[in-house]
Amino acid sequence: MSISIRRLTPHIGGEVTGVDIRKPLSAEDAAAIHDGMDEYAVLVFREQPMTGDQQLAFTEALGPIELSGGTNLKKPEEYRLPTTFADVSNLDINEKPMARDDRRRLFAIGNQLWHSDSSFKVTPAKYSLLHAISLPSKGGNTEFASMVAAWDSMDDDLKSECEGLVCEHSQMFSRQQIGFFDFTEEEKQRFKPVRQSLVRTNPKTGRKSIYLASHAGGIVGWPVPESRIFLRNLIEHATQRDFVYAHEWKIGDLVMWDNRQTMHRVRAFPAHEPRDMRRTTLAGEGPTAEQIAA
After folding, report:
1. In the predicted model, what is the mean pLDDT of the chain?
2. What is the pTM of this model?
3. Average pLDDT over residues 257-278
């Protein structure tokens, strides 16, 4: 049986059937998945519970992995998973939900803002692959917005204004939006802003997308208030409901998305209930913009 993809919304998302991603992936199936990502930006593989090794093998069949160390407030001895995974659960090293006032949890709830994974790195991520291990009784859905549809629907004047702009991205910018300012000096250095182009072009399809995230806190050469209201208005435009797919998770689901073409956010869920989600990430191919000289 060959891979088949059913469109989920007019602008974003496809449900994949005809492949067991827990088994070794053929070159033909890998190519079909890459083609599907170019077209749909988000692919859903429903109810395929897998081990960590199986998730890693599936990810590595699609490209090199991006390691996750240093992207949160956990110390290395507090990591629940190896750095081949991004631990986006609410669990501590003892597999218990973190306390409501735990600064690691408060930092992590910034993921409820629209963002693109690793846009705060010089080389941002390509694909993210998220697998559901355990779920809360309610909430915790993940929403995805098409940045291609957002770009296509912009008028020519706004497109011209966006072309050539470079933004500064940092997790400090996104966390400050929710009132989190509790950064140590080491964390401030680790989360120093990086530069990303505001407009990106898919090298395979040639289609453009607007590259947004709550991590974007400024536009190079613009006053901060002007740049932030400009970016906020773009995010409001890009996340209108027609451009969004909302995934209601079931245990064993794996959802993968193209960070170059999408933003996403998790929705709220009960803080005292476990939500065990494990993400592998495909490394990007290079910087999108020139960085500040050291």
Report:
1. 97
2. 0.97
3. 98
Six-digit token string for 67: 């390691």
Mean pLDDT, to the nearest integer, of 120-136? 98
What is the pLDDT at residue 294? 54
Fold topology of 4-281: Double-stranded beta-helix (3.60.130)
Answer for the pair 175, 101: CB distance below 8 angstroms, yes or no.
no
> In the chain, what are the domain boundaries?
4-281
Structure tokens at 58: 């599936």
Rounded to whole angstroms, the Cα distance separating 265 from 28 reads: 31
Distances (CA, A) of 85 to 75, 162, 187, 277, 279: 15, 34, 21, 10, 5
In the block, residue with structure tokens 């996403």: 264
Which single residue is written with the structure tokens 């950064």? Answer: 183
Q: How far is CA 176 from CA 113, 115, 182, 187, 276, in A?
A: 11, 14, 9, 14, 25
Task: Sort strands 142-146 and 244-247 into parallel, antiparallel or unpaired.
Answer: antiparallel
